[in-house]
């Protein structure tokens, strides 16, 4: 795995994926602190999902870092893979699934740079485009919500989740698919949003607290919230 691993951001990508322009002055964004490791690797131990439609495989495993001057436990991660059977030396040999995965990585990279203190998504470790595959690496953010479970959340959980969606919009991102399958909840009942392959940057949200944004209006309705 490429080095260094960056705290609050992913490693420098070898894919040529550029972060989207920030909604604020980029000069005001502090660069993330780099943690340099001697060696890093992953051990994948469970296949979590497979999408025939997008030709992705999602694996769970551990991120292992060596050479640090402080103790760290193995970090539980999730890796979304595309194009694992392609010829990496052949130019332009990236599938639609690989292109979508690189587009999704742009959203994570953007959020890691402009909002590193917001826990809207799982921690982003980077996207890697080598060895004949494209891999998006995230912290394990918990389990996906069950289908049709949004309205069963209690009021505080609904408001927490809706606030995360609003934060995303304030940062200029339209998610595009705010459904249970794209929402994680960990053991401490913290929510994270995932799956940004159909998301849009530069969203100018006109939400006024009751209406004005189609995605937020629909999400509030799905949550059964009274605004």
UniProtKB/TrEMBL annotation:
Source organism's superkingdom?
Eukaryota
Can you give the residue ranges of the Protein kinase domain? 29-227
What GO molecular function terms would the record report? ATP binding; protein kinase activity
Q: Where is this region: Disordered?
A: 1-31
A Pfam family matched by this chain, by name? Answer: Kdo
Protein's UniProt name: Protein kinase domain-containing protein
Give the source species.
Lentinula guzmanii
